Amino acid sequence: MEAKPNAIVAQSGGPTAVINSSACGVIQEVISSDRIGRVLGATNGILGVLKEDLFDISAESPETIEALKQAPAAAIGSCRYKLKSLEASRADYERILDVFRAHNIHYFFYIGGNDSMDTADKVAKLAAERGYELVCMGVPKTIDNDLAYTDHCPGYGSVAKYVATCAMEAGKDTEALYTTDTCSILEVMGRNAGWIAAATGLAQRCNEDAPHLIYMPEVEFTFDKLVSDVKEVLKELGRVFIVAGEGLKDKNGNYITADTGAFGKDSFGHAQLGGVAEILKAVIEKEVGIKVRFNKLGTNQRSAMHFASLTDVNEAYMCGQMAVRYAMADENGKMVTLIRQDGPEYKCTTGLAELIDVANGEKNVPAEYINEKGNHITDAMRDYVRPLVQGQAPITIGEDGLPVFVRFQRKPLEKKLPEYL
Amino acid sequence: MEAKPNAIVAQSGGPTAVINSSACGVIQEVISSDRIGRVLGATNGILGVLKEDLFDISAESPETIEALKQAPAAAIGSCRYKLKSLEASRADYERILDVFRAHNIHYFFYIGGNDSMDTADKVAKLAAERGYELVCMGVPKTIDNDLAYTDHCPGYGSVAKYVATCAMEAGKDTEALYTTDTCSILEVMGRNAGWIAAATGLAQRCNEDAPHLIYMPEVEFTFDKLVSDVKEVLKELGRVFIVAGEGLKDKNGNYITADTGAFGKDSFGHAQLGGVAEILKAVIEKEVGIKVRFNKLGTNQRSAMHFASLTDVNEAYMCGQMAVRYAMADENGKMVTLIRQDGPEYKCTTGLAELIDVANGEKNVPAEYINEKGNHITDAMRDYVRPLVQGQAPITIGEDGLPVFVRFQRKPLEKKLPEYL
Q1: Catalytic option among A92, A144, A151, A312
Q2: Of B45, B49, B226, B369, whose CB is crowded by the most CB atoms within 10 A?
Q3: Residue closest to A336 by CA, chosen among A189, A169, A185, A153
């Protein structure tokens, strides 16, 4: 009797608090399926496939697999390795199929953003061309929330909850110390989309609350506007709390962190060393004459499992689980999407989008979510994000008082092919 | 019948997650005392006293006062206004007594660090000199944990729990993405003491866990050592996670952020714009040739009420409460201290120290808490900090899914004196 086909699951790009929940959904659903043999993990995403660096997730304990729901970052391992077009990266794509063939892999579940969906799409197409039976399914993942065809992305709800709370808390700090530490900046991620910055707007329940100003990459950024915005808030409240997306751009679409003009490195020096927050700080201190502090949460915002959204964890799991169910229902070459149902109660179901469409799409914060002045959000944005931050995802606390995060045993699969890369 | 004497409570310096718990302890205990009239708040610490900017905390609802236990930052308001010696700032000290007299204030509860204890001490001395009946009691507060005469400081346990968890979580991120994002730096507070940096050591349960390297101001910092430390960890694990205290110093005791030498602004440019993390990043990228990211939690670490230590919240409350009880027992001119009891179970009681002694003291991380290489902590440090991070302080979550933090109504007291400042 021929062995049942195996499945492989891989994670790609910047981790999130819930990418392991998606992995857990895939893994548990594969294990409960009688049509699939083992579920394998690709160490460090597609890099693990290329290097034939695989391990047997089926050999991990059920407790370890269940604990993925509570573990931030990518437990299977992630990477930033980019594959180009089928023509330009042909050897890589062929290698992927070779590795799949060598390990009897006929199901490929790829958890990631647009680039990953692009890779999965091309692998699916090459497999079809070669007559190799392969089901490729994408599971959405990105804190940036910029994937098209899905209401929102797993990972976003948790980062939204965390950064909004951070804005609230640091805002209280600024409120307490405003007589000297008058202005604070919270720099958040989002290179091209302002979804994360926008989420912090939920923290402002009344005028006094932080954040008072929110700058998103969707709005052309000018230092003149910044200075006048800051002065206006100062006049009203005597303090100002600013949230800045890391990817703010000037009128020409250039990142202000690369600015070489009047406010760039010539006048403020070595802007290349700093991010958006440093530049804003320098400008405000010089032009407004108040002390500015900044917080840069960095990777902590996308790994904040200790305050993750339960809604997000559950939806991330559902996306992973549904990817397998859709595969069992003969779907292929598609990514699972989240569909927000109409009605007074928030409810989300799943749907499907073509991998190629997701790969080529991008979703920015729409104009109706941004206020007229371009420095805060509207109630429509609040309504959009509010349901996504609901609930506290459970975590296990160890005897030392700190969270316990699982790590795989990683039983490596024997390599069957010549070395590559 | 003469009115009962009033009490005033003030908060000073950088806020913490639990400084309001201490205020709550003071306020609730004063309210339950039949020897004290009203409890007043000094808006923005001693600045509020000087400006006669006071409000009636007794007029706030009991629910608001109780909710202080869940509110980060300084709800009464804080400041960085520094009083000098009795001679140099005589007018200020006289003004404080004038304001106290005008509002029948005979109890002064000051929640803060050494500078605040110094102020409280001088106020007490001047009052005695002037024959004005005044009880001055200090309540310890600082995330820096550098106050002498107390086992630890309220505020420290919460920041310790939060930064250790952040190191754990961001460490997982680095572990997942190490093939490109090989090195991460977490910059934490602590200008002169490394207690906060040291606390992150608790996150490392095994060799693979972050943080791999911890740099504290107590150890002379050299870039050569940094580079060789990083290379050693890289060789073993292929990645490295570093925690750096913001106040790292060179062999001459100068902050490395003020460095103008080989690794200073001449070679890395405009170091004055950056903090420790930026400088370490620049050096490691150049000398080791790996990509470095950094997270700078800033004021978010000291305001992280969403993950505060229950032990810390309870002890902060106890310190406030005991300050009043000691005052009722005729103590004066003293600060409440925390005393760790001997025995297998962690237990803390309170004691007293002279304000002047606390003002002149400082407590750094002792040598036995730092490993021989000067780049991590010992088990003695783990044993010290572990009990302090235990338990999750409750927070109230609003319908919008985010924490609810209280804000005083602030019923201002009528001013009775001429303007000052």
Answers
A1: A144
A2: B49
A3: A153
Q: Return the residue in A169, A179, A241 with the most chain B beta carbons within 10 A, the one to mutate for interface testing.
A: A169
Chain A positions touching B386 (Cβ under 8 A) are 400-401
| Position B262, amino acid | A
Which of chain A's residues have a Cβ under 8 Å away from the Cβ of B177? 14-15, 74, 78-80
- Separation in Å, CA of B26 to nearest CA in chain A: 19
In DSSP terms, A339 is beta-bridged to A349
The length of chain A in residues reads 421
Calculate how close chain B gets to A205, using CA atoms only, in Å. 9
Instruction: Name B211's Cβ contacts closer than 8 Å, sequence gap at least 6.
Output: B167, B171, B186, B200, B201, B203, B204, B241, B242, B243, B376
CA distances from B227 to A211, B184, B284 (A): 39, 14, 6
- CA distance linking residue A234 with residue A336, whole number of Å: 46
Known catalytic residue: B144?
yes
Interface predicted TM-score of the whole assembly (ipTM), two decimals: 0.96
In this complex, do B176 and A306 lie within 8 Å of one another by their Cβ atoms?
A: no
Helices within B178-309 (DSSP H only):
195-199, 223-237, 265-268, 276-287, 299-302
Q: Amino acid identity of A92?
A: D
Shortest CA distance from A285: residue in chain B:
B273
Shortest CA distance from B274: residue in chain A: A274
Digit-coded pLDDT (tens) for A58-73? 999 999 999 999 999 9
Tokens standing for residue B88 = 């140099």
Which residue carries 């990518």 as its tokens?
A: A74
What is the phi/psi pair of residue B58, to 5°?
-60, -25
Over residues B73-98, the mean pLDDT reads 95
Span A218-252, pLDDT tens digits: 999 999 999 999 999 999 999 999 999 999 999 99
